[in-house]
């Protein structure tokens, strides 16, 4: 067929942060893009794709998306895992991009068409103290956001997840709220930054922040909070209860994600809506959580959960239990991955909310998107396929820059979840 895969290439670029992109080209020259970025472990996926996947793609019909997915998943024998699933995700996204371009349609049309006019997006507001936080919330409201994630510094702790070190210092938009750039260490040798954590200080402080935010900004504004996997089930239940008066949209990742029984305990003790899943890479990670209704939102990123094919199945599975989506959209998901989210968000009946961190100007010069942001909602645009193009010359200007996510320690030096 003319839709046979002629070539596939891995593109690694670092316009401010690292991105891994797979580009697939068919015999008649249709090009598809897929995001394969795994923050802090990027080259593992690049090598997996280049050495183990690309040799299998040549000559396959790009139209056979489900069969290719199963071939790469079952065919590897070694199932799941973030590296494997990010590689499969990239192939899957690129093939959907190609199929939609062949059909001359924006991708959402192949996923069922529009269910809404745009995807409600939430932005990240943060501040080291209440004043900075309020400024950040106001700034995002002025930009047009209608749902806000709230993260703050904790008295006694130097740096806390979700709070940009540079917030309020006049850093440029795009970097300013980039609270977790995987950083280079001193002397240019990449090493994780180490942070210090104190759960009791955090649990004491957070309810007072939400009290202040509600009294300043009123009852209507949807507010979210991310606990980033740091709490035991009992601590998470305590936090959930203490936040109940502030009517959160969700409390995210309150316990380490690999233990579904932790959420059973949390669920039994608080009515706060729960979201989880950004570190999951398979529907199977969610099976107990969904069938026992232990969560309200599934948080996977298309890039880390096997692509559009697998994420669509996850969303449909969740829908049967009245559970909604809230796909993971930090800046380490590239504009290609975020485009895939926006097409799904537009089409899925059980869409909940879409996380949105603005990519830097340098990133948007490499990845040219057709996204629209209006009335607090994101729209993927009407270009054919995913609607993202990569500027290869711009990409080449940004060489790979090894970097790690931070590591957390308790006051006595014990490594804690970050
Ligand atoms: C979020 C996430 C991110 C992750 C990041 C790690 O809710 O957006 O928690 O902030 O920490 O994606 O690479
Ligand atoms: Mg999170």
Fraction of residues in helices?
25-40%
CATH class of the largest domain: Alpha Beta
Beta percentage is 15-25%
Structural class: alpha/beta
Gap from first CA to last CA: 48 Å
- CATH architecture classification of the largest domain: Alpha-Beta Barrel
Return the string of H and E elements: EEEHHHEHEEHEHEHEHEHEHEHEEEEHEE
Count of the separate structural domains: 2
Question: What would your notes on this structure say?
Answer:
The chain has 418 residues and is of the alpha/beta class. It has 2 domains: 5-106, Enolase-like, domain 1, CATH 3.30.390; 119-385, Enolase-like C-terminal domain (TIM Barrel). The chain is 35% helix and 17% strand. It is built from 12 helices and 18 strands. The strands form 4 sheets. Strands 4, 5, 7, 8, 9, 10, 11, 12, 14 and 15 form a 10-stranded mixed beta sheet that branches. Strand 8 (250-252), helix 7 and strand 9 form a beta-alpha-beta unit. Helix 3 packs across helix 9 (307-320). The longest helix has 21 residues, at 82-102. The chain starts with a strand and ends with a strand. The structure holds D-gluconic acid and magnesium ion (MG). Magnesium ion (MG) binds next to loops. Pfam families: MR_MLE_C, MR_MLE_N. Residues 130-273 form the Mandelate racemase/muconate lactonizing enzyme C-terminal domain.
């Amino acid at each position: 067929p003319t839709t046979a895969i002629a070539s596939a290439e891995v593109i690694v670029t670092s316009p401010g942060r690292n991105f891994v992109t797979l580009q697939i080209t068919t015999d008649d020259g249709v090009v598809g893009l897929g995001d394969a970025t795994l923050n802090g472990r990027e080259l593992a996926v690049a090598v997996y794709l280049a050495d183990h996947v690309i040799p299998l793609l040549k000559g396959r019909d790009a139209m056979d998306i489900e069969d290719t997915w199963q071939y790469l998943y079952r065919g590897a024998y070694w199932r799941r895992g973030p590296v494997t699933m990010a590689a499969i995700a990239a192939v899957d996204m690129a093939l959907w991009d190609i199929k939609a371009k062949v059909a001359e349609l924006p991708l959402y049309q192949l996923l069922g068409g529009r269910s809404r006019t745009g995807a409600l997006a939430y932005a990240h507001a943060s501040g080291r103290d209440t004043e900075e936080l309020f400024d950040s919330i106001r700034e995002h409201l002025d930009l047009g956001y209608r749902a806000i994630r709230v993260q703050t510094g904790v008295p006694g702790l130097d740096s806390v997840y979700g709070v940009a070190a540079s917030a309020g210092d006049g850093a440029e938009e795009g970097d300013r709220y980039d609270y977790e750039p995987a950083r280079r260490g001193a002397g240019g040798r990449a090493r994780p930054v180490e942070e210090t954590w104190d759960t009791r200080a955090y649990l004491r402080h957070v309810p007072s922040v939400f009290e202040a935010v509600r009294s300043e900004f009123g009852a209507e504004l949807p507010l979210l909070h991310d606990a980033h996997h740091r709490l035991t089930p009992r601590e998470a239940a305590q936090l959930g209860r203490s936040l109940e008066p502030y009517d959160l949209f969700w409390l995210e990742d309150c316990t380490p994600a690999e233990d579904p029984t932790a959420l059973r305990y949390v669920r039994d003790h608080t009515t706060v809506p729960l979201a989880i899943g950004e570190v999951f890479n398979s529907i199977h990670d969610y099976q107990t959580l969904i069938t026992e209704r232990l969560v309200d939102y599934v948080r996977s990123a298309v890039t880390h959960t096997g692509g559009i094919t697998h994420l669509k199945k996850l969303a449909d599975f969740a829908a049967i239990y009245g559970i909604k989506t809230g796909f993971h959209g930090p800046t380490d998901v590239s504009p290609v991955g975020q485009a895939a989210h926006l097409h799904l968000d537009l089409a899925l009946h059980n869409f909940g909310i879409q996380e949105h961190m603005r990519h830097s100007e340098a990133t948007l010069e490499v990845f040219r998107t057709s996204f629209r942001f209006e009335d607090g909602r994101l729209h993927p645009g009407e270009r054919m396929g995913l609607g993202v193009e990569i500027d290869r010359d711009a990409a080449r200007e940004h060489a790979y820059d090894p970097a790690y996510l931070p590591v957390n320690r308790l006051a006595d030096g014990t490594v804690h979840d970050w």
